[in-house]
Amino acid sequence: MKNIKYYHLFITMLFVVLSGVLNSQTISENQNIEWTISRFLNKKLQNVQISGNPKIVKSPYGNAVYFNGVDDAFFLNEMPLKNLEEFTIEMIFNPAIDGDFEQRVVHMGEVSHDRMLLEIRAVEGNWYFDGYVASKGNKLALIDEKLTHPLGKWYHVAFVVTQNSLTTYVNGKLELQQSYTFKPIETGKTSFGVRLNKRSWFKGSIYKIKISPNQLKPDSFMSS
User: Fold this and answer.
1) Would you kindly state where each structural domain of the chain is located, as residue ranges?
2) Which of these, 114, 119, 87, 131, lies nearest to 188 by C-alpha position?
3) Name one Pfam family in it (predicted).
4) Are strands 115-123 and 126-135 parallel, antiparallel or unpaired?
5) Which of 13, 52, 54, 74 shows a CA-CA span of 20 to 30 A to 182?
6) Structure pTM?
7) pLDDT at 147
């Protein structure tokens, strides 16, 4: 009887220890949010609304999703930037050669108030990056029409937002940086492929989007 009592005590303690380990791993893993966009089509997720008919296409990294620039988009009933005082959002994407001039690729937050957007402008076979934030009435777009890149190719872009600055990168190379007073975005939703109010549709493919709750440098950016 005594041995049985100690055995049950051992099992109980082991369960507590393992539970703590598993919970700490889960918490650690949840610090970063990473979407491989094709999974939105492979699985029916309750918090994801699909607009149009986005299609899975091949990319050098794995399956990606093609957006037609007319009505293809994903709308998520969540706002992953909530309470973040700083963050880095990365995206691996391929802008099509025949999309509209103004294209909103990622939108998080409110439609017209506090929000963050990854945008591009397409002109004469090239595109240039636009990282935009509106926070407590303070609005700023990091954009330079001279920093162009050929359309129809795969790129990694990153937008780093801190309490006092905004920074953009393309393929790990610093493009723009400017002072900015940022306050956390508390409310809203998320869209991929268009602005939340269904304006300025993106034409091209997206492979992956990642959000880290801190300021990353290029040597810490995702590779695929």
Assistant:
1) 1-30, 33-217
2) 114
3) Laminin_G_3
4) antiparallel
5) 74
6) 0.85
7) 98
